[in-house]
Amino acid sequence: MLNMQLYPGLSITGTVGRVHLIQYVSSLEQANDPSAWRCLEFLQLPASPYLWTDKSSPATGQRFYRAVVRTSAPTNMVFIPPGTFRMGIPADEVDGNVWEGPQTAVTISRGFLMGEYEVTQGEFLALAGTNPSNCQPPHFPEDLTRPVENVTWFEATNYCGLLTERERAAGRISTNSVYRLPTEAEWEYACRAWTSTRFSHGDDVDYATLTNFAWYVENSASSSHPVGQKLPNPWGLHDMHGSVREWCLGKGPYAYAGGIALDPEGPATGSSRAWRGGSFAHPGSECRSAYRGYSDPGHTDSTLGFRVVLAPGQRWTGQ
């Protein structure tokens, strides 16, 4: 017997490759209220027309859908499509570390938007009213175009909350979408950008090409630099391998389980918080896509900053 389950949905026509916001309301009376529309996912249109289905639709009740083309706001955000990748390193990766494995087949089930650049000192100052990079004895001159650093995990997540509130109030994001830090899995998936090599630009065993993509200890003169000066990865993200390390949501430390995983967020408890990527003070071996580490959430230093993601269909839950 053929077992089929039917899902509601809608047919979408438009420019292939454009990112659409799939939204819904529970009654037609809500349709004229912009704040009533809830975002289910971000969809990069694969074909036109395209039949989209809602596999999360409840068994009771009803939903009315629409597809809205993503406009120029929010700016400097890159669409990261859903997909599956191998998180972590193979046993023979050059300069790999035991805590970066075993490899796990991870599926990221929904697309999201990620900052093309790390959050800058200027962006942080404009929203939070302070510049943490200027609160410590400076290692280099203050520059609002450089990534903000000397931020705690709490300051990074608070920035995400403030950004969510501002963009909702301006009507630029749906009322159930949030800016937040990426999970470790989302960060590595976005960094790799469909690659399985040590870096998103290849294995680069002798680190001869890394200087084109990252500020690290060999080319940085022991200083941060304005964001976006190095080549991006295949998905258009800058400074993933160097510049400053980036806080993530994950708690820990924890070891990978291997096998397969769906949208892993890491453990629910833990005294430390994850960070990813290398920095201007790190060697090339610590700028690889799989490189990871943990620090106390109150820790600050001049090599640690963050970037944001915009995730659909989520509530802001604070810290």
Describe the model.
There is one protein chain. With 319 residues, this protein is an alpha+beta fold. The longest helix is centred in the middle third of the chain and has 17 residues. The strands form five sheets. Strands 6-9-16-10 form a four-stranded antiparallel β-sheet. A four-stranded mixed β-sheet has the order 14-13-11-15, covered by helices on one side. Strands 3-2-5 form a three-stranded antiparallel β-sheet, with no helix packed on it. The mean pLDDT is 91.
Any key phrases for this structure?
single chain, 319 residues, alpha+beta, paralog of FGE (formylglycine-generating enzyme), 2 domains, four-stranded antiparallel sheet, four-stranded mixed sheet, 16 strands, globular
Continuous helix count? 3
Radius of gyration: 20 Å
What is the CATH H-level superfamily of the largest domain?
paralog of FGE (formylglycine-generating enzyme)
Side by side, the strands of the main sheet go 6-9-16-10
Summarize the biggest pleated sheet.
4 strands, antiparallel
The oligomeric status of these chains comes to single chain
| CATH third-tier fold name of the largest domain | paralog of FGE (formylglycine-generating enzyme)
Number of domains in the coordinates? 2
CATH architecture of the largest domain: Alpha-Beta Complex
Strand content: 15-25%
Q: Distance N terminus to C terminus? A: 49 Å
- According to DSSP, the number of beta strands is 16
Tell me, rounded to a whole number, the average pLDDT.
91
